[in-house]
UniProtKB/TrEMBL annotation:
Protein name, entry field: XkdX family protein
Pfam families: Phage_XkdX (PF09693)
Taxonomic classification: Bacteria, Bacillati, Bacillota, Bacilli, Bacillales
Protein's organism: Staphylococcus warneri
Domain of life according to the entry: Bacteria
InterPro entries per record: XkdX
Amino acid sequence: MFITLKHLYEVKLFTKEKLALSTKYNWITPEQYKEITGDKYEPQA
């Protein structure tokens, strides 16, 4: 799933918000979120 989400983000079909949701649903880890976006994952309340 990581490779797919990374590609979708790179071609601008996925936003940081969608990646954050993917992290919340355990599709990717917070570390992978940071690797894709360059930003630290901060859980939304």
